[in-house]
Design goal:
This protein is mainly α and 669 residues long. The protein has 30 helices and five strands. Strands 3-4-5 form a three-stranded mixed β-sheet. Strands 1-2 form a two-stranded antiparallel sheet. The N terminus is likely disordered.
Length: 669
């Protein structure tokens, strides 16, 4: 059957040539200067034949009148002139007035204009064209002789906007009108093209509707439309690019591709599937795909090796960096030159594996090879130094006391300066990692200087950077700069989270600022923001700070803080043990256990419960047991004495008689 298959530009209307079932053309653009003569090629997947038009022929040509008739010349010219001027709404209005006098090609042009654009992932606001797609759908229903290409335009528009339900519904309507039915009926006009199915499949994949995607793959096969390797590669790319790891879906698609008759997975297929596994930290599965492609004799390239190395860099095993470097050596032996991304991944792998010296060696190798070192690669190296510095700090119980730690923060600052000298963009991650390295070594002044350098680069410090700088001040027992930084956080409009609050409390603890720490605790408790609600770390540091301060007032504050923590369910949860007469103190710090003892005995006295029993305090067979024994004996009045059961060496037991004596003594005071 011969039908009109032309998608006209907004610039002008051409003489439409008759062709036997040519592929649909893509609508290029709307307003703007458009050449009077152009050749359009089908941009839809699966079509290769060009679709060209002569834009220089007049509307009154004989061939044009043969197609649309003399009465259509004026409305058609008017509509396309409006489209060229960007007056889409006026073009729609004229089209509706013209009715049956307008050819299908003009309908296509208007519908393309209404469907142009689509949702970008980061753009939440709708544009005017997002509303006009509904107008395009209405025009589709109003066409006297509905075309397959009109359906394609609507489906593509819905798919670009993520409206998979509408795209799928329109596809179903198109199948009824043009596709072969599942009962084997013959085509009415033309078959549904592969690219149309691919648009809906992609919409399903982006919306994580993988069951529907697989169902549509099955349905299109029954319709006689077979997916090709490009189909699978496009869907795999969506899985590999998703924020949520979609490695299981990617492996399922790869399996289908391998079983699809007449379809052979190519290197892109395996590379993309590996990328999805890498994002899901499935290093083992990614390397299985690597070996499978290599064993099949595929010609491997730098992207394939780099993806495999990236899977190693994201691996959970500490020795994954060795495998990454092994792949780097292998590709060099095969004559495949590593690029900047390859080395960047290798640096990240070494950093994650704690091999900061090797990471720096790779940077030197890149310089020798005159390869550009970008922000991501520099950041990976600085992060490696930061991670090593924090490890050193934990090992030595603080920063600034070890030559290795000094070397690490100095190297981090050196890389930051290199970036500035080489004109490499420094971002918030750059500074946050360097600040963290300085903080681990107790270099608070350098950390504060880096905050100022961020502002000098036009980068607004984030919570991570501020928190790292506050931690640096805490490690150096510098309360004033820590408090100033915390105040800057609020002045910059950033809501401090629990990590920032805990960092400030840590600074107050090391600087011995009990009053200030108590005020911060109260601020956190009074906040309506759940993200700053105190946690066990907060409680431990606040109690430690107050407990070390002399005087009755400090002890009373400790008791108030501990009671609040119990009320919030941070500690001594009622559901933690089988009975209220058994309390586990073994995982508490000494100051918290001390406060817990006072709280427990105070609660027993205030409860007025006549059913007094033996009290068991679980401490573990450690220093905690003797510490608690001393607290009960020396701080409670009257003194409480306890025993260690022969078969429970990690428990202190206060006998019922001793408990009654304590209760009676308290009530007599």
């Amino acid at each position: 059957m011969i039908f009109i298959a032309a998608t006209l530009s907004v610039a002008a209307v051409s003489t439409v040539a008759f062709q036997p079932r040519p592929p649909p053309c893509s609508y290029q653009s709307l307003p703007g200067n458009v050449s009077r003569r152009r050749s359009l090629s089908s941009s839809l997947i699966g079509h290769n034949a060009p679709c060209s038009f002569d834009w220089s022929l007049p509307y009154a040509s004989k061939s044009n009148s043969d197609v649309v008739g003399t009465t259509a010349k004026v409305p058609t010219l008017s509509i396309h002139s409006l489209l060229e001027a960007g007056r889409i709404d006026d073009a729609v209005a004229d089209l509706r007035k013209s009715g049956d006098e307008v050819p299908a090609s003009t309908y296509h042009a208007v519908m393309e204009a209404c469907c142009a654009g689509g949702f970008e992932p980061k753009r939440k606001k709708k544009t005017r064209n997002d509303d006009r797609i509904e107008i395009a759908a209405e025009l589709l229903q109003s066409m006297e002789d509905v075309t397959a290409h009109a359906h394609e335009i609507i489906i593509s528009g819905y798919a670009r906007r993520g409206r998979w339900r509408d795209a799928h519904h329109t596809l179903s309507e198109m199948e009824k009108a043009f596709g072969s039915s599942e009962d084997g009926a013959q085509n009415k006009k033309s078959s549904v093209a592969l690219n149309v199915y691919q648009a809906v499949l992609a919409a399903f994949a982006r919306a994580h509707q993988f069951d529907r995607m697989n169902s549509l793959l099955t349905r299109m096969r029954r319709q006689g439309v077979r997916p090709n390797v490009y189909t699978y590669n496009s869907l795999l790319k969506i899985c590999a690019s998703d924020k949520v790891p979609r490695w299981k879906e990617a492996l399922s698609l790869l399996s289908q591709c391998q079983r699809e008759p007449g379809v052979n997975p190519d290197l892109i297929t395996y590379t993309t599937a590996m990328k999805a596994c890498a994002r899901g930290r499935q290093t083992g599965k990614a390397l299985e795909l690597f070996r499978a492609a290599r064993d099949m004799g595929m010609k491997l390239d730098v992207y394939f090796y780099t993806t495999a190395m990236d899977a190693c860099a994201k691996g959970k095993r500490r020795d994954s960096w060795k495998r990454a470097l092994s792949l780097l050596d292998e590709m060099k032996e095969k004559g495949i030159a590593p690029n900047e991304v390859t080395y960047g991944v290798a640096v990240a792998a070494c950093g994650n594996g704690g091999r900061w010296r090797k990471a720096l060696e790779l940077l030197d190798t890149m310089r020798e090879a005159r390869l550009e070192i970008n922000t991501i690669t520099y950041n990976s190296a600085i992060a490696a130094l930061s991670k090593a510095a924090r490890s050193e700090s934990r090992h030595h119980g603080g920063g600034g006391i070890d030559s290795e730690a000094d070397l690490l923060w100095e190297k981090a600052l050196e890389l930051v300066r290199c970036m500035e000298g080489e004109g490499v963009r420094r971002d918030s991650f750059t500074f946050s990692s360097a600040i963290s390295a300085c903080g681990a070594a107790g270099r608070w002044q350098e950390a504060v200087n880096l905050i100022e350098a961020m502002k000098g680069d036009g980068i607004k410090p984030n919570k991570v950077a501020y928190t790292a700088a506050i931690t640096a001040c805490a490690n150096s027992r510098r309360w004033e700069p820590a408090f100033e930084l915390f105040r800057d956080v609020k002045e910059d409009g950033i809501q401090p989270d629990i990590v920032a609050y805990n960092a400030l409390i840590g600074a107050g603890m090391t600087a011995e600022k009990p009053a200030e720490v108590f005020d911060i605790w109260q601020e956190m408790c009074q906040s309506s923001n759940a993200k700053v609600s105190p946690d066990i770390v907060t409680l431990t540091e606040v109690v430690a700070t107050l407990d070390s301060a002399p005087g009755k007032a400090s002890r009373e504050r400790v008791d108030r803080v501990f009671a609040e923590a119990v009320a919030r369910g941070l500690i001594l949860r009622k559901d933690s043990l089988d009975t209220s007469w058994e309390v586990d103190l073994s995982h508490m710090s000494f100051p918290v256990a001390r406060a817990a003892c006072r709280f427990i005995f105070r609660q027993i006295v205030e409860s007025e419960d006549e059913a007094v029993k033996d009290l068991s305090l679980i401490t573990g067979a450690s220093r905690m047991r003797e510490y608690v024994r001393e607290v009960l004996r020396d701080e409670l009045r009257p003194a409480v004495y306890c025993i260690v059961p022969e078969l429970e060496q990690g428990t202190l037991q206060v006998k019922e008689k001793m408990m009654r004596n304590y209760i009676e003594g308290q009530r007599q005071q």
